[in-house]
Amino acid sequence: MSVLLTLTSCAIVAAVSLSSTAMMAVAVAQEDENEQIIEKGLETQFADGQVLIRALDGFDCHYTVVGENEIHVKTTAGSMIYRREQVGEAFRLYLDQISDADALIADIRSFEVDYQRNVQAYTYDHIKKNLTKDMTVVEDTVLEDDTLVLTINVE
After folding, report:
1. Distance (Å, rounded) from C-alpha 106 to C-alpha 112?
2. pLDDT score of 32
3. Which of 10, 101, 145, 150 is the most buried (most CB within 10 A)?
């Protein structure tokens, strides 16, 4: 028996994850004279703080890890805070001091793409490392959109 595992391209996932709500929130925060953090925050898909930090490491930004549930990020486009109530739940994004709304939206999208890429790579490595003796990789394919397809034979 063969099992087909598909790890969807991070670009596809990120393209749909940043909704118009995020863009609207940037506009609202900008109207509030760039001083007020949006109280409610924006939902993100970032549930793993270490993977989020790895994504931030790849960008020209400064960040401070306040604890495992809060990370402050400053870019040339503005500053934001990723915060969650407890480990295991997704971080929420709070915007502050926006100097360039379009660039900040682009930064947020870039963070999402890199985060998803890191999750995809972690999942791929985890699957390959945890194959049992009766499992073998028959085919390992990367599609044009960077989707990973693993075909695993289970005996």
Report:
1. 10
2. 53
3. 10
Helix (H, G, I), strand (E, B) or coil at 95: strand
Geometric angle at alpha carbon 125, from 123 and 127, rounded to 5°: 65
The count of residues in the chain is: 155
Read off the pTM: 0.69
Q: What angle do CA 27, 43, 107 make, to 5 degrees?
A: 55
> Any idea what DSSP says for residue 55?
H
Nearest to 145 by CA among 113, 119, 99, 109: 113
Residue 78: exposed, middle, or buried by beta-carbon count in 10 A (0-12, 13-18, 19+)? buried
Residues of the chain with pLDDT under 70: 1-39
What pLDDT score does 2 carry? 47
Helix/strand/coil (H, E, C) string of the chain? CEEEEEECCHHHHHHHHCCHHHHHHHHHHHHCCCCCCCCCCEECCCCCHHHHHHHHHCCCCEEEEEECCEEEEEECCEEEEEECCCCCCCCEEEEECCCCHHHHHHHHHHHHHHHHHHHHHHHHHHHHHCCCCCEEEEEEEECCCCCEEEEEEEC
CB atoms within 10 A of CB 49: 18
